[in-house]
Every structure is written in C-alpha cells, then in structure tokens.
Amino acid sequence: PTVTVQHKGEEAVVCDDLTSDGLKKCLDNNELPLFGALDGESYGKYMSSGKGLVWGCFEQESSDDLEKVADEHRPLMNELAKEFKDQFAFTYIDTVQFKSAIEGMLGVTEFPTLAVNKKAGDKMKYLYTGEMTVPKVSEFLKGVLDGTIEPTLKSEPVPESQDEPVHVVVGSTLEGDVFQADKDVLFEIYAPWCGHCKKLAPEYEKVAKKIVKEGVEDMV
C-alpha cells in the first residue's frame, strides 16, 4: 500500500513509514499546504505551527476572486515556501472580507504586499511591496531572519525640519530620538484633546528653550 498527501497545486508527498507513528508524523508534517488560505478555519493551525508567517495580501475585486488570485501567485509562493519551509508558513488572505483587519493588524493598505512575522502571532511585522520575484522576496526574507531588515512601524511622516526646541517624535524615529545612551531625554506623550496637556505645553516649551539656551549637551 502507498499513502500520499497532496495539496492543491503541489506535488504529492509519499509517506514512507506506514507504521502508526510514522503515518502520524507524515500527516502532521504535511497538514498545511505550502501556500494555503488563512481564514477562520486555518488561523489556529498557523498560529500554533511554531514558524514565522507570511501573509500574502493580493488585489481582489471581490471575495469570489480569492482562489483565482491565489492561483496566479501560487508558483512564486510555492517556490519560496520550499526554500523557507523550516522558517515560515506561506498564506493568502481574503483582502476584501478582511480589509479592515489587515489594515489594523498589519498596516497593509496597498496590494500586492507580503506581511511577515518572524513568529506567527508576533506584533512586529515586516512589509514587502517590491518586485514579486523569487530572488527579490527571498532576499527580503533572509534579511528579516538575519536582522538586516528593520520592522515596519505605523508612523506619521517624519517632520521636514526640527528647528524648534521641542522636537516632534513619530513612530519611525522613536528609537533613534528617544533611546539615546549618552543623553537624558524628556519625552512627552500627549493627546490633542487633553486639557492638562494643553496647560503643560507652554511650560514644556519654556524648559526646552532653557536647555537649548544653556547649552546642556547631555539632555534633550
């Protein structure tokens, strides 16, 4: 007898060990496809896979187009999934049905985009919007793994100039501006509607001007 496991668009995997334990291992190892749908049914399996996760977010006109769009990208994603089988699970998601979720969770607003988590469930994400080819995406994923690619942060645009004593910090400049080993940083987090924040603003400005005027170099 022969036992094989085959997912859509993939080569069949032959289970060589037909013992009870051998079959279980073979089926467990091949339960998820190389490139599969990420939905309510499969979400838990991907989250518990122990691997990183690649979310394939592709342009769709409607939810009915999901499988057609996935098939268009399947050759690319299958090749990548084979290369990174031990590190990442590769998925595609309905970008019409889950539009709000992927915008809120991943910050994805344009397609195609690959959103990458080093480990499924991580809040840290890496967004790839470049050329959708095996060499380019592979290079990006290797950079994510070795730390040469920085995570993508939700951020307002960086101010064009910082001429005022009080500098404006946005998401993408937070680490460089605030976490400085050689300086003490006074960092205010406020809400525009906060009455106490509005009252503090002029006093905060006075302190900043005084620090600049006195030439204090180890404080920002």
Write structural notes for this entry.
It is a single chain. The chain is an alpha/beta fold and 220 residues long. It has 3 domains: 31 residues, no CATH class; 113 residues, Glutaredoxin (3-Layer(aba) Sandwich), CATH 3.40.30.10; 65 residues, Glutaredoxin. The protein is 35% helix and 13% strand. The chain is built from 7 helices and 7 strands, in the order ββαβαβαβαββααα. A 5-stranded mixed sheet has the order 3-5-4-6-7. A two-stranded antiparallel ribbon has the order 1-2. It is elongated and about 85 Å long. The chain starts with a strand and ends in a 7-residue tail after the last helix. The mean pLDDT is 88.
Q: Give me the strand/helix succession.
A: EEHEHEHEHEEHHH
Write down how many β-strands occur, each being a DSSP E stretch of 2 or more residues: 7
Based on CA atoms alone, the radius of gyration comes out at 24 Å
Q: Give the biggest sheet.
A: 5 strands, mixed
Percent strand? 5-15%
Mean pLDDT: 88
Q: What's the shape?
A: elongated
Q: In CATH terms, what is the fold-level topology of the largest domain?
A: Glutaredoxin
Helical segment count: 7
State the end-to-end CA separation.
73 Å
Regions with pLDDT < 50 over 5+ consecutive residues? none
- Based on the coordinates given, report the CATH architecture of the largest domain: 3-Layer(aba) Sandwich
Compute the number of structural domains.
Answer: 3
Going across the major beta sheet, what is the strand order? 3-5-4-6-7
CATH class of the largest domain: Alpha Beta
Helix coverage percent: 25-40%
Structural class by SSE content: alpha/beta
